[in-house]
Amino acid sequence: MHNRNAFLVVAALCVAFVAATAQADGKAKAQVCAACHGADGNSSNPIWPNLAAQNPSYIVAQLKAFKSGARQNPMMSPMAAPLSETDMQEIADYFGAQTLNIKPLAADAADAAAAGQKLYRGGDAERGIPACMACHGPDGAGNPASGYPALRGQHVDYTVAQLQNYRSGARQTDQAQMMRTIAKRLSDEDAKHLATFISALH
């Protein structure tokens, strides 16, 4: 029994060491992303997404898409090209473990956020727009098992740009064209309202 307990302790220490090493490797590898996404995944530029607290599986999926060409971006495609799957996973795990800094709404954004909340939580049946929270969760944390990303605390400009890209077909990485279909039913005003609400969601 003593030997078995000793083995379990050693095994647990080994697992902890491997996890800590992977986290350290991920942090080191993620520093090349820091110029745009921030050292801790909180981007200071509203056109570049926050990665802090994003579901690692989603980050990996997007890096693979940039590498394969399924998702096109003149900045991200060459950044993803040299990454191995191990690199992608370690970077994703690092950013996923960081704390997202969610900023409160400005006073003049309250009306837009209220309209966005209505769409996010209830959709619009007449226009065939489902509630966003059905996939992305009531608190915007997403659904890692289904591959749906966390949206909470994301920059308004970035979210609007992605909805526009889905609408135009410039972005085609959505499952079963779900986001492309929905985005075509959203007006520019809808997109801005949703993005405003999402930016402060937590």
CATH level 1 name of the largest domain? Mainly Alpha
Please report which band the strand proportion falls in: under 5%, 5-15%, 15-25%, 25-35%, 35-45% or over 45%.
Answer: under 5%
From the 3D structure, determine the CATH topology of the largest domain: Cytochrome Bc1 Complex, Chain D, domain 2
Termini separation: 47 Å
Tell me the structural class.
Answer: mainly alpha
Radius of gyration, whole Å: 19 Å
Task: Report the average pLDDT across residues.
Answer: 90
The parts where pLDDT drops under 50 for at least 5 residues are 6-22
Range of helix content: 40-55%
**Overall strand count:** 0
Count of helices?
10
Shape: globular
Can you say what the CATH homologous superfamily of the largest domain is? Answer: Cytochrome c-like domain
Q: How many independent structural domains?
A: 2
Give the helices and strands as they follow along the chain: HHHHHHHHHH
Annotated CATH architecture of the largest domain:
Orthogonal Bundle
Give a short account of the largest sheet.
none
